[in-house]
Design goal:
Distance between the termini: 61 Å
Number of strands: 0
GO cellular component, one term: membrane
Radius of gyration: 17 Å
Pfam families: Ferric_reduct
Organism: Labedaea rhizosphaerae
Strand content: under 5%
Protein name: Sulfoxide reductase heme-binding subunit YedZ
Keywords: Membrane, Transmembrane, Transmembrane helix
Length: 177
């Protein structure tokens, strides 16, 4: 059973990063107000929202399986308070920080009507910090951190978000001319 938990913990972490990347890239690009190719805005918004929610569920799976896995030796305090872990405290702390930031985004999104659009938007900006923190956690923590496939995937995630940012900034520059 230990191997199953270990593989599930790693797999859910990687897939959470991929889906979080999709959500952030679409959020950045769609915020420009311009359509993204032939896709209608409602479809882009739906993929943005759903990929973020599925990433959050996978992140919970990542944390829970590693808490249950005796090989990972993750403790509840490691998940709740950043940078207190005994094994690789910096990289683990980045993962905890990313979890905390993403939790703030999810909670305020679920309570959007109560916190108001202005409050929701202010907290939603936290996702701009949660994504790179999560990417750095991926690159610094765990047994797959230096493998070619995970490095290539991490570069692809970075390129996707960077391309979305360039797209948005380019459109903004064109509009201001």
């Amino acid at each position: 059973m230990t191997d199953a938990l270990w593989y599930l913990g790693r797999g859910t972490g990687v897939m959470a990063l991929v889906l979080l990347t999709i959500s952030v890239a679409l959020g950045v690009a769609a915020r420009s107000g311009e359509p993204l190719g032939p896709l209608p805005r409602f479809a882009v918004t739906a993929v943005h929202r759903n990929s973020g929610l599925i990433a959050s569920v996978l992140l919970v799976g990542h944390v829970v399986t590693l808490l249950l896995d005796p090989y990972a030796q993750l403790k509840l305090i490691d998940v709740l308070v950043p940078f207190l872990g005994t094994a690789e405290p910096f990289w683990l702390g980045l993962g905890t920080l990313g979890l905390d930031l993403l939790l703030a985004v999810v909670v305020t999104s679920l309570l959007r009507m109560r916190v108001g659009v202005r409050g929701w938007r202010a907290v939603h900006w936290v996702s701009y910090a949660a994504w790179p923190v999560s990417l750095l956690h991926t690159l610094g923590m765990g047994t797959d951190a230096a493998t070619p496939w995970l490095l290539a995937l991490s570069v692809l995630c970075f390129v996707a978000v960077a391309a979305a940012a360039v797209y948005r900034l380019t459109l903004r520059a064109e509009v201001s001319r």
